[in-house]
Amino acid sequence: MIITPLTVDRIPDLEKLLALGEPYIRLRGSSDYWLYATLFANTCPLAIIDGEVVGSVIAFRSQVDPSEIYLQDVMTHPSHRRTGITRALVEEVDRQGTLWGCRRLFLTSEPENHAAHGAWLAMGFSNVPGDTTEQGVSVIYDYKGPGKHRAVYERWIGA
Question: N-acetyltransferase domain: which residues (predicted)?
Answer without folding.
Answer: 1-146
